[in-house]
Design brief:
Length: about 300
């Protein structure tokens, strides 16, 4: 089902797991499969990752009465105008695979004054092309430099080309793509922290995880709002830094980048939700995460 009504607030991009799921594969791409089949391939793991990454966020939005509509990745690819039906665009969870058309459509929406909230990790990393004939996506490249995916050898054969993800998101996957960390406040006076009571250096344990963002882009006005060394296991640092960012758009709008797949864990714990645990462990709903999230759509509506 596609939702086309205008929204007074936001449009949330939820990966359409019911139509775009993991395909079993014996190739080097076997984690997700080289191809992401649409409509004609059964899911190999039920709901995909929707309940893990995105469900708690959607649950929290709806529970708090936010006026949101939903858009799939395919809609983002096909419809440039779809991104302009709300004041903000939210990317949730593990929003890895984008076409260049999705990237350019997002850039156009940003230039037109739409706000962006990347409450996601490993976002805009894998570059795919879409085939209408086979209704499938094929991974063909990476929106980032070769050093940013050195953890995965099978990605070394893929083209690493500009534009890079951090040119849109603010930061992107870098070095060891996976890992975990605490969310550590790096700019306590920033408006995202209003009402949280957080102070410089204060941390939210385990909120950064599975995959995360670093390497902020040299965008004029970009601010680092959180940063912390990442680890590959408890107490074992991997020599990289998680970086959350905010930068201004051209029309008084902004782009927020949380740089973690696990942001939604800090918002709610709905029935049936199973908390992730790898590299580190998030601790569930946290009033500070909820207030930061509340501040962002509030700013979008100004």
């Amino acid at each position: 089902m596609r939702e086309i009504r205008p929204s007074g607030s936001m449009r949330g991009e939820m990966r359409t797991w019911s139509g775009c799921g993991r395909k079993p594969s014996s190739s080097p791409y076997s984690i997700y499969g080289k191809y992401c089949q649409i409509f004609d391939a059964p899911l190999s793991c039920g709901s995909g990752e929707w309940f893990l990454w995105e469900f708690p966020f959607s649950f929290w939005l709806e529970m708090n009465g936010y006026d949101v509509t939903y858009i799939s990745n395919l809609d983002t690819h096909l419809e440039a105008g779809g991104l302009s039906r709300g004041r903000g665009f939210l990317s949730i969870g593990h929003d890895e695979y984008w076409t260049i058309e999705m990237f350019r459509n997002a850039q156009a929406a940003l230039a037109a004054g739409v706000n962006f909230g990347f409450f996601s990790g490993n976002a805009v990393c894998g570059r795919v092309v879409y085939s209408p004939e086979s209704q499938s996506f094929e991974r063909v490249g990476v929106f980032g430099p070769p050093s940013g995916t050195r953890e995965f050898q099978h990605m070394s054969s893929l083209a690493h080309e500009r534009p890079y993800a951090n040119e849109l998101v603010g930061a992107h996957s870098t070095g060891p793509v996976t890992g975990g960390a605490d969310w550590v406040c790096a700019l306590a006076q920033h408006w995202i922290y209003e009402g949280t009571g957080m102070v410089q250096g204060e941390g939210i344990p385990g909120l950064i995880g599975w995959e995360w963002h670093g390497d902020p882009a040299p965008i004029p006005g970009l601010e680092i709002v959180a940063s912390c060394p990442t680890q590959s296991a408890s107490g074992r640092l991997n020599r990289e830094l998680h970086t959350a960012t905010v930068y201004p758009g051209p029309g008084g709008n902004f782009v927020f980048n949380a740089g973690t797949c696990w942001w939604a864990d800090g918002l709610s714990s709905p029935p049936g939700y199973v908390r992730p645990k790898v590299y580190t462990e998030p601790l569930g709903p946290d009033r500070r995460v909820q207030r930061i999230t509340q501040n962002i759509p509030s700013k979008m509506r100004e």
